[in-house]
UniProtKB/TrEMBL annotation:
Residues 181-295 form the Endoribonuclease YicC-like C-terminal domain. InterPro entries: YicC-like_C (IPR013551), YicC-like_N (IPR013527), YicC/YloC-like (IPR005229). Residues 3-157 form the Endoribonuclease YicC-like N-terminal domain. The lineage of its organism: Bacteria, Pseudomonadati, Pseudomonadota, Alphaproteobacteria, Hyphomicrobiales. GO terms for molecular function: hydrolase activity; RNA endonuclease activity. It comes from the Bacteria. This is YicC family protein.
Length: 295
């Protein structure tokens, strides 16, 4: 399966059941699956089934889904509520007689709420069920299109993530090969530290100082952090190859990357290692930021 970004957009039209049905859907990143609908009057009952359709296609993301249904494209006709129109005309005539108001026009009466009934307001139960089924079918088609768009963005995002993971591997290798970690460099550093302490206080036991310095040097060794960074790099590449639905796992892995980078900086006993650690933290921050957009 391929990687999928949580950012995307899709618009789809479908002429079915005597209506023109249009879905417009936008998605951005989110911790879970959150869908907000904007539905026309009379289609509120569609929402629950529409949420089930979303869950079949996506696991994460914040979605805004807008539906429009235009039955004027079909055979349905708008109807006039004649009893209401007659009553309003009677009231208008009475007001004109009592208060001398201007004569009402047909256009003015037709514009009053409830006089002109839209086609969806006069659908039979069978017609409404047919339109709702077409609405859900159109939604499924729109989500397929949205998934393709998100996969296209996911591919580009995957290329960026691969480049950043390569940078983590490169910096880990630089730290591993840093001259400050050679045996001669460690010995020289230990000797200098012991000599400095003996100059400050000649009464100190030189052998004990050597033991303490060696112990501190062992605690400052970053080999374990480097090994774990290599393992995390391999795990991240495996997840990228696995594809869809790995965003949470990669997000957790960036926390591990960051932990090792912090430890490397705290243990560093050379400016060169500190510099590498800081560069590593910067790359990990960029990696985490990009992964937030991955499903």
């Amino acid at each position: 399966m391929s990687l999928q970004s949580m950012t995307g957009f899709a618009r789809h039209l479908r002429n079915s059941a005597g209506a023109q049905i249009s879905w417009e859907i936008k998605s951005v990143n989110g911790k879970g699956l959150d869908v907000r609908f904007r539905l026309p009057a009379g289609f509120e009952a569609v929402e629950q089934k529409a949420r089930a359709v979303f869950s079949q296609h996506f696991k994460r993301g914040n979605f805004q889904a807008a539906l429009s249904v235009d039955r004027s494209a079909g055979d349905a006709r708008a109807l006039i509520n004649e009893p209401l129109l007659q009553e309003l005309a009677r009231i208008a005539a009475q007001l004109r007689a009592d208060f001398g108001l201007a004569q009402s026009t047909p256009e003015g009466l037709m514009a009053l709420r409830g006089v002109l009934q839209a086609p969806q307001d006069v659908l039979t139960e069978e017609d409404q069920a047919e339109v709702e089924a077409a609405v859900l079918a159109a939604l499924d088609e729109t989500l397929v299109q949205l998934a393709r768009n998100r996969e296209s963005e996911g591919k580009a995002l995957g290329d960026i993530l691969s480049t950043q993971i390569d940078a983590v591997e490169r910096l880990t290798g630089e730290a591993r090969r840093d001259p400050s970690r050679t045996l001669d460099a460690v010995r020289s550093r230990l000797a200098a530290q012991v000599a400095l302490l003996l100059d400050a206080s000649p009464a100190l036991d030189e052998a004990r100082l050597h033991m303490e310095a060696a112990f501190l040097a062992t605690k400052a060794d970053i080999q374990e952090e480097l090994d774990r960074l290599d393992m995390h790099v391999a795990a991240a590449r495996t997840l990228l190859r696995d594809g869809n639905g790995v965003g949470r796992k990669l997000d957790f892995l960036t926390q591990e990357f960051n932990r090792e980078a912090n430890t490397l900086c705290s243990k560093a006993n050379a400016a060169s290692i500190t510099s590498i650690g800081l560069d590593l933290k910067a790359v990990v921050d960029q990696l985490r930021e990009q992964i937030q957009n991955l499903e």
